[in-house]
Every structure is written in structure tokens, then in C-alpha cells.
Amino acid sequence: MKDCIFCKIVRNEIPSYTIYEDDVVKAFLDISQGTPGHTLVIPKKHIANIFEYDPELAAAVFSRIPKIARAVKDSNPDIKGMNILNNNGQVAYQSVFHSHFHLVPRYTNHDDFSMTFKDNSNKYTPDDLKKIQDSIVAHIGD
Ligand code: AMP
Ligand code: ZN
User: Fold this and answer.
1) Contact at 8 Å (CB) between 30 and 38?
2) Which of the ligands is closest to the CA of residue 2?
3) Helix (H) or strand (E) holding 18
4) Which atom of ligand 1 is the closest one to the Cα of 16?
5) How close is the Cα of 35 to the center of ligand 1, in Å?
6) Model confidence over 16-35: pLDDT tens digits?
7) Active-site residue (options: 38, 100, 110, 139)
8) Element (H, E) at 68
9) What is the pLDDT of residues 28-64, one digit of tens each?
10) How many angstroms separate the CA atoms of 63 and 56, rounded?
11) Is 46 among the residues known to form the active site?
12) For residue 139, is pLDDT > 90?
């Protein structure tokens, strides 16, 4: 896509600190470096978000992620773990609308990354959960 910043990175029209690329994906340092080594993995094909993947592209992209994640982890003995995130839609904090996966190396529980969600389990009855389950199951396609 012409004006997409990540498509421009794929075409090398703007520079990136690329750590891996092949015919399907490109992986490069996230300029924000949430923690040192913070990397983005993107499909070279422009798609906006997770909802636009077909099974073949999803399989191709996901199959590359462990290899890239291992390289990031092995690059620094202080990396003890990794969060992998994928934001979809502005409401979910997506700011670049070319699908991407964040690989965020973790050094300690108190490094510069945090991710929290509330535990609302005490607000749901089994019946509430069953209704949610049924409404989602009804939309699972083939
Ligand atoms: P998200 O908020 O999930 O859409 O993440 C977009 C990410 O892209 C942010 O973490 C930005 O720091 C990163 N980003 C934006 N422009 C560039 C760029 N030119 N090179 C590397 N990372 C970028
Ligand atoms: Zn794009």
C-alpha cells in the first residue's frame, strides 16, 4: 500500500534496523525499544490486522516467529522471557495499520514493559459465561 509506513519499510524506501527477512516476513527493531531488543515481525503483504489473515498467510507468518524470537532472546543473556503482542484496532492501541507482532524481551518483572487486565471472574455467573461461549461458537466458521 502506497502510503503505509511498514510497506515503505518492506520496500526499503525508509530505513529500518532489519534483523531478518525472507519472502513472507520482515523483522526489524521497533523504534520505541520498549525494552532493549523490542522487535516487530510483519507480513510483507499489506494486511491491516488479524481479522484479515487467511490460514495460509497466518501459518506462514506464525511459523517464522519462534526462530526470530529465539534469535532475539539469544542475543542477550539478560533476556529472561518475552511478551509477544498483536494489537488490532485503535481501541486495542494499534497505531500502525499494517499487521505486526511485537516481540518484547523481558529482563525483570520491573523493566519498562507492563501488561495488565482486571480479574473480573467474580462478576460472571456460569450462565453469563455460557451465553458468551454460545455467541462466539455461533460465529466460528469452517
Ligand atoms: P502498534 O501501536 O501496535 O500499532 O505498534 C506500532 C509500533 O510501530 C510502535 O511501537 C512504534 O514504535 C513502531 N514504529 C512506528 N514507526 C516505526 C519505524 N519507522 N520503524 C520502527 N518502528 C516503528
Ligand atoms: Zn502496509
Assistant:
1) yes
2) 2
3) strand 18-21
4) 20
5) 13
6) 999 999 999 999 999 999 99
7) 100
8) helix 55-74
9) 999 999 999 999 999 999 999 999 999 999 999 999 9
10) 11
11) no
12) yes
